[in-house]
Amino acid sequence: MSVTVEEVSAVFDTILVLDFGSQYSHLITRRLREFNVYTEMLPCTQKISELSWKPKGIILSGGPYSVYEEGSPHVDHAIFDLGVPILGICYGMQELAWINGKGVARGEKREYGPATLDVQDQSCPLFKDVDHSQVWMSHGDKLSALPTGFTTVATSDNSPFAAIAHKTEKIYGIQFHPEVTHTAKGNLLLRNFAVDICKANQNWTMANFIDTEISRIRTLVGPTAEVIGAVSGGVDSTVAAKLLSIAIGERFHAIYVDNGVMRKNETETVHKTLTEGLGINLTVVDASEEFLGKLKGVTDPEKKRKIIGNTFIEVFERQAALIQPKSGEEIEFLLQGTLYPDVIESISFKGPSHTIKTHHNVGGLLDDMKLKLIEPLRELFKDEVRALGEIMEIPHDLVWRHPFPGPGLAIRVLGEVTPAQVKIAREADFIFIEEIKKAGLYREISQAFAALLPVKSVGVMGDQRTYEQVIALRAIETTDFMTADWFVFEASFLKRVASRIVNEVDGVARVTYDITSKPPATVEWE
Ligand SMILES: Nc1ncnc2c1ncn2[C@@H]1O[C@H](COP(=O)(O)OP(=O)(O)OP(=O)(O)O)[C@@H](O)[C@H]1O
Ligand SMILES: O=c1[nH]c(=O)c2[nH+]cn([C@@H]3O[C@H](COP(=O)(O)O)[C@@H](O)[C@H]3O)c2[nH]1
Ligand SMILES: NC(=O)CC[C@H](N)C(=O)O
Ligand SMILES: [Mg+2]
Question: Which EC class, in a word (predicted)?
């Protein structure tokens, strides 16, 4: 028997962003959701007839191509038959012009940076309260003529067609980017479009999402089937597990694997919080010896990742096989903590970005396990997951936890991973994080940790010459982990941490602080 489960976009009023490959496209989605309008992004090649829901409005994003070039992407003209408002941004506006008269050409010079907007037509609802503000331009092509049926709504010094609007339909084009923060009133403009012009309901809140999602899970799973899921104690898997546990109770089986390279006290804390605190049906598997045994003698970072990923799958599958569903049937579903950025990445018009490190998750389980997937967070950004966690009363500490990589301390112990080395990295990390929390800096920092370098250095302690290893501290600020800046601590803070680590952790003679940004460095040392 198959059940139909409504998509989120069929339940909430949805603005559809069609992506032409701009680096800013996902920001459009984020901005609209920030004022509680549900927004989804699909590739610009999406066939409208294949959509199972009707958007309240459509936004055409920017993109790196030129509309007049052969092979450049074009939108399905059926968007005009939907009778919903349309907003074209940069390439998106050029696409509207190309469809309505082809007046787009290479400009004499590129325009990149701030410009001041002059609104000519004050009655245009898109520009309500937006006049004379700074906007951000990033283009080389421009409109050479007004498209058929359009008028000029706003100009700037370099762009005689900074904004255009159709005379009778609700179709708008803007040359600048409202989604970037350099456009002072960009949020307001997007709000004017989504709320005033498209009349989208501002009901996208996690409080509303939670009920829809729980009933969606119940419909999908049905009255008797059971679900398994790997839970790390990280925010994504915990929030997903809590949702499942609210929806189907004991029929959800969470499995946490202690791989021997977790942080100090982690296994105990996760166990206690998830079972006693959150009432999740959790099994803790201690597989540390198995993992550490397989890591023996291995120094190559990618090999470490592969060994941990593969062992993880073996342990998980072994454990899953032990679960006997009450129904007498087999386990039917697997929970995954997939987030919206992963979805965007996989549907991106540009194709998935270049993989620098093979970040594993439990994706490898699927092929032979024949389980159906449940991904309750696949519509959410990380900040939405955190908001959802707060609503479900998951402890703050867990909701705001820095991400922790699946291979754990194994990629923070550079070189061979031995129990002795893991212990040093674990103790140093614990002190660093403890001091960060004491200083009230934990929430300001996106991720912080200590890495153990496989080099020895000379030191002196109590008149004795020492010859021990080096700890590198890393703390970064970032919004998306694709780029990151190192965090600027007060000198006194670093002094305190260094002194504690050298004094309290056996085997460390020296502490350094990593002051490299990403790029060129990555967040992790391996
Ligand atoms: N030690 C572990 N035990 C069980 N599952 C794990 C473990 N480590 C990772 N996983 C699984 O791999 C997935 C991916 O891990 P990842 O670190 O990306 O996400 P997370 O731990 O849920 O959240 P965060 O990004 O905040 O750490 C997890 O959601 C979880 O399903
Ligand atoms: O689950 C994971 N498995 C991995 O192998 C892995 N390597 C890096 N990371 C995390 O990804 C983010 C970006 O890290 P990098 O700049 O080092 O690639 C940071 O948050 C890193 O901690 C991993 N996460
Ligand atoms: N940011 C954009 O959308 C740029 C559009 C187009 N490629 C141009 O250079 O004008
Ligand atoms: Mg994690």
Answer: ligase
Query: What homologous superfamily is domain 206-400 in, according to CATH?
Result: HUPs (3.40.50.620)
Q: Cβ contacts of residue 11 below 8 Å, gap of 6+?
A: 212
From the CA of 402, the nearest ligand is 1
CA-nearest residue for atom 9, ligand 2, is: 405
Instruction: Give the number of other CB atoms < 10 A from CB of residue 322.
Output: 10
Decide if 206-400 and 419-513 have a common fold.
no
- Distance from the alpha carbon of residue 19 to the mean position of ligand 1, in angstroms: 29
What topology is assigned to 11-197 in CATH?
Rossmann fold (3.40.50)
- Yes or no: say if 74 and 51 are a contact pair by the CB < 8 Å rule: no
Ligand 2 site-directed mutation target among 447, 523, 526, most atoms within 8 Å of CB: 523
ipTM of this predicted complex?
0.93
| Residue nearest atom 6 in ligand 1 by C-alpha distance | 232
Evaluate whether the domain defined by 419-513 bears CATH number 3.30.300.10: yes
**Predicted structure pTM score:** 0.89
Beta bridge partners of 117: none
141 by DSSP, 3-state: which?
A: strand
